[in-house]
Design a protein that fits this description.
Elements (H helix, E strand, L loop, with lengths): L1 E5 L6 H14 L4 E5 L7 H10 L11 H14 L1 H10 L2 E5 L2 H9 L4 H18 L7 E6 L2 H8 L19 H17 L3 E5 L1 E2 L2 E2 L2 H20 L11
Parallel strand pairs: 1-3, 1-4, 2-3, 4-5
Antiparallel strand pairs: 6-7
Helix pairs in contact: 1-9, 2-3, 3-5, 3-6, 5-6, 5-8
Length: about 240
């Protein structure tokens, strides 16, 4: 099973992906974690780091088709690595996958232009590059204002010397990305939404992790029985 953990910057994807990996391993499953972009491991991952550092211009200066191609190419370059993990493990968890491209680039367009761009991204990654489709996508849903507060607490990253990259620093952009993610979660198959706030307060890492674990294990059981991965979660 290929599980993708998605969400805007600061929503806790890396933390939850690692925790999910540890719980699968403790349960006796052969599990692996792959984080995208692979900033220091691939040629295109390093190029994405330059993009996020603003070397190619501001967010609104780089055509989303070109930005999307960088992220898709990073996954294409990583395809043998990902396929090796899938063939050797029961579960592979991706900290971001193709949906992150659809959400982040889609947020730069509206209406028919957004839908056309997302179809183009899907055709590029799944059609032309023939990347494996995820069996389950778990969306960690967090408002942009809270996400930016958490981003400010992040430790230094290897791809940027800045406290926040050009995407993380733009709250309006992050709010738009969240809206696109919510639309995808409501319309795409095999998506589950996990709310990171409860009654306006941030849930604990453990509480969110327990819900993620329940969703993932239930999906794995249903997949083993030939059923669908997930019923829709209400926003």
């Amino acid at each position: 099973m290929l599980i993708a953990i998605e969400g805007i910057d600061g929503s806790g994807k890396g933390t939850q992906a690692k925790q999910l990996l540890e719980r699968f391993l403790a349960a006796g499953k052969a599990a692996a974690l792959v984080s995208f972009p692979r900033y220091s491991a691939t040629h295109f991952g390093r190029t994405i780091g330059r993009f996020l550092n603003g070397e190619f211009g501001a967010l609104d200066q780089v055509d989303p088709h070109l930005a999307a191609t960088l992220y898709a190419a990073d996954r294409l370059e990583s395809k043998p690595f990902l396929q090796e993990k899938l063939s050797a493990h029961d579960v592979v968890i991706c900290d971001r996958y193709v949906a992150s491209n659809a959400a982040h680039q889609g947020a730069k367009r509206t209406g028919d232009e957004r839908r056309a761009l997302q179809q183009w991204i899907s055709q590029t990654e799944f059609g032309v590059f023939d990347l494996p489709r995820p069996d389950l996508v778990i969306l960690l849903d967090l408002p942009a204002t809270t996400a930016q507060e958490l981003i400010a607490r992040k430790a230094a990253r290897d791809y940027t010397s800045k406290k926040a990259d050009i995407q993380e620093a733009d709250g309006t952009y992050l709010a738009g990305v969240r809206d696109v993610y919510l639309d995808l979660a409501a319309t795409e198959p095999n998506w589950c939404r996990v709310a990171c706030l409860k009654d306006g307060e941030l849930r604990s890492v453990e509480d969110i992790g327990n819900e993620v674990w329940q969703i993932a294990t239930s999906a794995l059981e249903r997949a083993a029985c030939g059923g669908s991965s997930c019923s829709k979660q209400q926003p």
